[in-house]
Structure formats: structure tokens, C-alpha cells
Amino acid sequence: MPKLPDARRIKAHRVYSVVEAAEALGCHRQTVTRWIKSGALQADTSARPWLIRGCDLKAYAQERRCKNRQCLAPGELFCLSCRKPKRPAFEMADFIFDGPAHGRLVGLCPTCGGLMHRFARHDRIAQIAGDLDITMKGALPRLNGPD
Ligand SMILES: [Zn+2]
């Protein structure tokens, strides 16, 4: 699977050539060329090398990343079998701690009955879970006190 372009690595105030843009995003040079030719990514193509403003590149990479991820709305989990975001069956999900600050929401797909997951930071759970009924699973890790 190709890596998703990571917009965080793009500096908005810089100007990028196609090669630099591809390197920064971790994708192929031809991929960036294709984005420009299709008109999806704005660039100065009046002379070689083609130049892309960092802010345009950043915005485009963010948009793409979002599309690939199919940005989930609050209360939605992603079903890998159905390849679609869905609200879990019974409007219920478990939050399972994978670490001190993060974990995942797990719910049942209402269509295929498979498990759906959504990774989430614990402090963002309210935004991510929306109005779902969440059951916390796994104890909050305790701070290490004196023995
Ligand atoms: Zn499903």
C-alpha cells in the first residue's frame, strides 16, 4: 500500500520543486506531476522546474489524506470489510486502552457484524465518540506511587 502523503512535513512558506515535493511527502515524483497535470495541485508551470508553493502543497496533501482516510464523523467507526465509515450497532462502542493516553473504539458493524475499530486519544474521546454509548475497558494506568 502506498504511504499517505504527510502534510505535516510540508513547510507552508517554502517553495518546492516537484522532486522536493515528492521527497517531502514520501511519494513518487510522477505522482506529484500527475496531481499538477490534472489541475488538482496548483503549481507554476511557466518554466522548468515547476514550482509549487508550500501552502498549496500542504493544503492538497491534507485534503488527499482526508479523502484516503474517509474522515470519520463523530460517532463513526470504520468497517474494513464494508470499507465504509458507519455508526456501530446499538450506538455502542467499547474504548480499549492501548497505552496511558490512547486506545481504540471498538464497535460492531451494523451491516456485516464485523468488528470496527477507530484509534483515538483518550483526551479526544468526547469529540470522537459523539453521542455513542461508550464503555471503558481496561483500567486507566495508575501513576507510579511510592512502594
Ligand atoms: Zn461491515
Written description of the protein model:
It contains 4 helices and 8 strands, in the order βααβαβββββαβ. Helix 1 (18-25) crosses helix 2 (29-37). 22% of the residues are buried. The protein has helices spanning 18-25, 29-37, 54-69, 125-129, and strands at residues 15-17, 51-53, 77-79, 84-86, 92-97, 102-108, 115-121, 133-137. With 147 residues, the chain is of the alpha+beta class. It binds zinc ion. Residues 79, 81-82, 109, 111-112, 114 line the site of zinc ion. Residues 79, 81-82, 109, 111-112, 114 line the site of zinc ion (ZN).
Write the layout of secondary structure elements.
Elements: E1 15-17, H1 18-25, H2 29-37, E2 51-53, H3 54-69, E3 77-79, E4 84-86, E5 92-97, E6 102-108, E7 115-121, H4 125-129, E8 133-137
Parallel strand pairs: 5-8
Antiparallel strand pairs: 1-2, 3-4, 5-6, 6-7
Helix pairs in contact: 1-2
The protein binds zinc ion.
Based on the model shown, name its key terms:
147 residues, alpha+beta, Multidrug-efflux Transporter Regulator, Chain: A, Domain 2, 2 domains, 4-stranded mixed beta sheet, two-stranded antiparallel ribbon, 4 helices, 26% helix, binds zinc ion
Sum this structure up briefly:
The protein is built from 4 helices and 8 strands; from the N terminus they run βααβαβββββαβ. It has 147 residues and is α+β, with helices and mostly antiparallel strands.
